[in-house]
Write a structure and sequence with these properties.
Length: about 300
């Protein structure tokens, strides 16, 4: 869900990169190629797909992680350079399909599934069990001081607070503009825009008072931060779902079954914990996923 750098700049850079990527990258061997976007959670999920596909089918698996953002991953799978990766339903709807977000998580999933099949011949597999939504995060001490639980409670406090947001949150339709309009928020200053990796550091050091992170970020628990409830349901559902090439699934039906076996296997807390292990404790995604699969009997 995350992109680094200016959203527009990344999109243009991504298109250029994709052209080079597609032109220069050789056809993959007789293996299932698993891709991921360019942040830790995606590496973890890509590793989960890779390990489980290999264990369940015996097929060789090639890993192509940290490809870039949403558009690069989408172009890579359409070009056949990867066979499967994990996307988020709200991102697929807004960023790829250019459709407004509305409806329940299941309705959003069904819309994305139908459109991806019709437009791209891609199969949207059942959700993995958690959502990685935009999350409005504040310091735990401020929750106690102001007795905060919901985002709507920020209206009276916002004029005294300084927000910090990532580039993508500022540009996306389901980001900043609609957020402040929906919750009638007026901050003390214009948002401080920074790379996602710096947001929590700025929050902890009191450079900003509120950030838009991701609900599964491992640093939330590590720094005793709190996610405010989206009580007006502004953010669309962002269920994590494997996206696979239909051509690959026809060739390897066992992969379809393997991906179905992962449905509902990851809770939000479990994803947050795996992110924490990789990001904060600097453990390898491979090791963390191996432990997770063992705990689930996969």
């Amino acid at each position: 869900m995350k992109l680094s750098g200016s959203f527009v700049g990344v999109a243009l850079t991504g298109l250029i990169f994709v052209s080079l990527f597609v032109a220069c990258s050789p056809p993959h061997p007789d293996a299932v190629v698993v891709g991921s976007k360019n942040f830790a959670e995606q590496e973890i999920l890509g590793e989960l797909l890779a390990q489980h596909i290999h264990a369940a089918t015996g097929l060789p698996v090639e890993r192509r992680f940290y490809l870039g953002g949403t558009y690069i991953a989408q172009q890579a799978i359409l070009a056949g350079r990867i066979d499967v990766y994990v996307e988020y339903t709200g991102t697929a709807l807004e960023a790829i399909l250019k459709q407004p977000a509305r409806g329940s998580p299941d309705e959003t999933y069904q819309r994305v599934k139908a459109e991806y099949a019709q437009r791209y011949d891609l199969v949207v597999m059942p959700p993995l069990g958690f959502e990685d939504s935009f999350a409005i995060v504040i310091r735990g001490e401020d929750v106690q001081r102001y007795h905060l639980q919901n985002i709507s409670q920020l209206a009276s406090i916002a004029p005294h607070w300084r927000p910090g947001f990532g580039y993508e949150f500022m540009e996306r339709k389901d980001g900043y503009r609609g957020f402040v309009q929906t919750y009638h928020l007026h901050f003390a200053s214009a948002p401080r825009i920074m790379d996602l990796g710096l947001l929590y550091r700025a929050l902890i050091s009191h450079q900003v008072d509120l950030v838009a992170g991701n609900s599964t970020d491992g640093m939330i628990e590590a720094y005793h931060l709190v996610v405010l409830q989206d009580d007006r349901h502004y953010f669309p559902p962002y269920q994590a779902v494997p996206i696979a090439r239909q051509q690959m699934l026809r060739r390897y039906p066992a992969v379809h079954k393997a991906l179905e076996e992962l449905a509902g296997k990851i809770s939000t807390d479990e994803m947050r914990e795996m992110n924490y292990e990789v990001v904060a404790k600097h453990r390898s995604a491979r090791e963390v996923v191996e432990e997770f699969r063992k705990s689930k009997g996969l």
